[in-house]
Design brief:
By secondary structure, the protein is α+β, with helices and mostly antiparallel strands. Helix content is 32%, strand content 35%. It contains four helices and six strands; from the N terminus they run βββααββααβ. Helix 2 (51-73) crosses helix 3.
């Protein structure tokens, strides 16, 4: 059983075939995420998902929750937070690597000014568990506070 000190989440993948023509299915333990992926969905525009897109979704969700927490703790609970994460897959030698992740967020938080907002956004970027796990990768943040 999971406790608040140790929570484990699971996803599984089934793959069939070689790398060029094979295909796989990703399933999250909740049953809410099931997606097909292949070489074509990762390196071209074939329909389906890919690991980088799923990583971007995870990072955007984690950062958004961390920012909501930071804003709430500062006395400015957000009305809305919209975040996009862009994961860059870059050719490196004979393979690929994730070269950087760009977080872009827009926040509506009544009563908050830009000077107070910026350190809270930076704190969320550095403190969210996904950012911590990805600290080997450059992570940038463009944070906008709606007037």
């Amino acid at each position: 059983m999971n406790t608040p000190e140790d929570i484990a989440r699971t996803a599984s993948v089934h793959w069939e075939g070689d790398i060029a023509r094979g295909k796989g299915t990703i399933k999250a333990e909740s049953g809410k995420v099931t997606a097909d992926y292949s070489f074509g969905t990762r390196f071209s525009n074939d329909p389906g998902t890919n690991p980088e897109e799923l990583l971007a979704a995870s990072h955007a969700a984690c950062f958004t929750m961390a920012l909501s927490l930071a804003l709430t703790r500062s006395g400015h609970p957000p009305k809305a937070v919209d975040t996009q994460a862009k994961v860059h897959l870059h050719r490196a030698g004979a393979g690929y690597e994730i070269s950087r992740i760009e977080l872009t967020t827009t926040v509506e938080a009544p009563g908050l000014d830009q000077a107070a907002f910026e350190p809270l956004a930076a704190e969320a970027k550095n403190g969210c568990p996904i950012s911590k796990a990805l600290k080997a990768v450059e992570i940038t943040l463009a944070a906008t506070l709606k007037a």
